[in-house]
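I'll show a sample.
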Amino acid sequence: MSDVMIEARSLTKRYGDFKALDNVSFEVKRGEVLGFLGPNGAGKTTTMKILTCFIAPTEGTAKVNGCDVFTDSLGVRSSLGYLAEANPLYTEMLVLEFLQWVTRMRGLEGNDARKRLKMVVEQTDIGDVIGQGIATLSKGFRQRVGLAATLMHEPPILILDEPMSGLDPNQTVEIRELIREIGKERTVILSTHSMSEAEKTCDRLLIITKGKIVADDTPEGLRRAAGNTRYYATFAKGGDITDTKTRLGNVTGVARIEEVPAANSGEIRLAIVAKDKHADLREELIKSAVDAGSVLLDLSGEVNALERRFAELTLGKDAVDDNGKAKKRARASAKKAEVKKAEVKKAEAKKAGKEAEEAEPEEEDEENSEDSEDSKGSEDSKGSGSETSDDADDSDDADDSEDDSGDSDEDDREDDREDDREDDNDASDEDADEDEDKNEDGEK
């Protein structure tokens, strides 16, 4: 029986002119926990989807537990448990309801289903939330429920896509320990972009960038490939740093010494690069610092060797400095800061110009307001004269109404007599119209 559980051969995936994967080949053996690393967009998820039969490669092929992804996709799917990055859960369900549904989807019934459900609940330690709604769970517990679902049918292979994404530090530790425990009995592929997480969880690391495999080694192997040993010495300011650098540089096994940014303004930090990858120069470095009369605050080995190696592989050696920092990103940050500074200056100049433009209309408005006040004063004087005239007219009208009040009763009686005469005329006209209508009817 072969120990190779996953075998990928010349996998290539194209989307139009874009190559998401470019001739990718690798193997994963039984009981191995493989870390699949790369920056965002490197091709990790595309590889996962091909291995789980979600998409087909443009070229190449892959086998999972001896089953071909083209000719035996059902055999592939029954051999693995896949936890996608999105962790698809039915949040309207209770945890127990969801896991019972998973048992039915996996063809488990009766006692077998109950035994498996109990086992995965214990494995993933979700017994305390088994009666809760999935919607009420924290991100960490949702990841645990997702893992329980992938383990339900006892697959020999697990493929986990960014299982610790979005978790807080405590949840990350819990899920990491759970994956390591699961990995003792199964083959696991863990996709991540965090080198530190992969180092703590995986036996072997595979790094992909721009659709190509650029490294396949153990964490220790990649650390050795990062280059010569580095030490970082921190001194208090005040001593003769030039003499200190000279004495440290004379230590046997030291290749070069460089001053690097210190954490505090009252400190000086030196990067000491050894000639040998495995050299231990700490004792000699401390003696030299004491002989120079400098106050040595700290001496430590490099802690970011893997991160530096990852940056070298994914960005290129020329883009990484001796401290493991990405020069390209540093330049991009500096350029961004310059652009922002220029934008601020431009905005300030624009604001000053706008304020100057607004100042001129204000002077014009003051002149206009003075003119308007003068015109308003003349209009007010005219208005007061017209009001006096109107008052005189009103008094005349009042006098006329008093003179006419004596004639109003006679006028009213005359109007009543005219109305009576008009009513009589209207009645006569109506009688005449009726007679005319009768005559016309008789003629017909």
In short: The two ends are 125 Å apart (CA to CA). The longest strand covers residues 4-15. The chain has 13 helices and 14 strands. Residues 327-404 form the longest helix (78 residues).
